[in-house]
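Revision sheet: structure tokens.
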Amino acid sequence: MTLVKFNPENKRNSLMPGFNDVFDSIFNDTFFADRMVTRVPAANISESADHFHVELAAPGLKKEDFKLNLERNVLSIAVEQRKEDKQEERNYAKREYSYSSFVRSFTLPESADENGIQATYNDGVLAINIPKREEAKTVSRQIEIK
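Predicted:
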């Protein structure tokens, strides 16, 4: 007897080949696909001499959709968005409500100045600038070679 490792991509090894096709067709339906996709925006984090920068790609939102919270050195960015397509007529075959939300959290370094954090939302990008404390700013100077 040969043991065959289960591989969902390889349907030839399935005990019931048609069984997988049924579930594939259900979960590949647009109704499920739209709701099962994770919509957590990508983030870019960079550092300059006097700031940390966080950029979140979140197109299609408004600045009012964002909630930024700072608690115990953790910066949390949350969005909760509900859309209802209201139509006066009640004779429709399919009507879907849309709801999406996400939370991204970032632990700030001890060198961050929590009181000077500023955020802007422009062209689908949430930009957060976090200043560094004075003692943590990079000081650059030339060193003379003797």
